[in-house]
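Q: What does the assembly look like in three dimensions?
Context provided by user:
Components: two
Sequences:
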Amino acid sequence: MKKEIITAVVFIVVFALTLVNTHALEKLSSELLDLIEQSRSYAEEGDWENAIKKALEAEQRWNKADPYTHIVVRHSEIDSTTYAFYELLKALYSEELGNARGAYMSIIAHLDSIHRMDKVTIGSIF
Amino acid sequence: MAIVFIRTVIVFLVLILSMRLMGKRQLGELELSEVVVAVLISDMASHPLQDIGVPLFNGLLPVIVLLCCEILISGAIVSSIRFRALVCGRPSILIENGKIIQSEMKRCRFTVDELAEDLRKKGITDISKVKYAILETDGTLSVLPYASEKPPSAADLKIQVDDFSIPYTIISSGRILEHNLRDSGHDIQWLNAQLSSRNISSPKDVYYMTVDNSERIYILPKEPEK
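A: Here is the predicted structure of the complete assembly.
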């Protein structure tokens, strides 16, 4: 019986950790989305300097989370999100609003998918 | 990760259910939950090995979850008769008093050819000589012939026979297994005396040696190296 109790505890702890992970990913992506939204507002106003500053802040936050994301997120997703960050920075440095708008949409979609991918819903399970 | 966890539990339960519905004949000596775990683990663990783009945790997590499921289900099977019947099923009597129970054969999806094959494997060619044939929950067939058809035992024939005991392996490939030597009630002096009485100078020259409780010794010297 002791073995079964330990197993049940492990089972519950592992499930709890997976939920903590989902929450942590949600927090990370919402933090990043917040910074990207701020950057987009600056870019729409033509304030390229602040738009780049916020985008760089988001990119650094993303890179800082790399040891964690590499453990829990598919590496292909990490790579495509990192590329989306660089595409955004490229558009911002060249101060092209049209390109920047597309790059913002791309990075938002990537960050949103990382968060959505691990969110427990009927759709994601089945 | 939470999705991987929930999906693993769902797949485990669905496989248990589907294999349970498939019937005992699909199992073959393993318990149902063991078969399901064996089927799943081998495939799940291999994905992160083959694709380095998949985090290792994606492979390890289902294995941990399956292990937990298996232990919990086996624990429940041991402690609850009802749950055991639900998950493992009950043994099915396919032959009773020399007569095949056709309804039970149909329920187990067992053909007469398969039954005859299993009986032949047990040395029985005449169904009328079988008192009971029972399809066990692990998919094996137990066959109990009529008492008159069973080979007589030493007790039936009132013959005095020596009881056997499991021999202890004392030397294996030239190595003395000291724990077994002690358990057999002997010591190294006794071993050396046994070897020298057979003109063997060292235990290293022995490939295999056993001794049982009746002091019957088996010694196989090593073949000379070519």
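Follow-up: Chain A has a mean pLDDT of 89.
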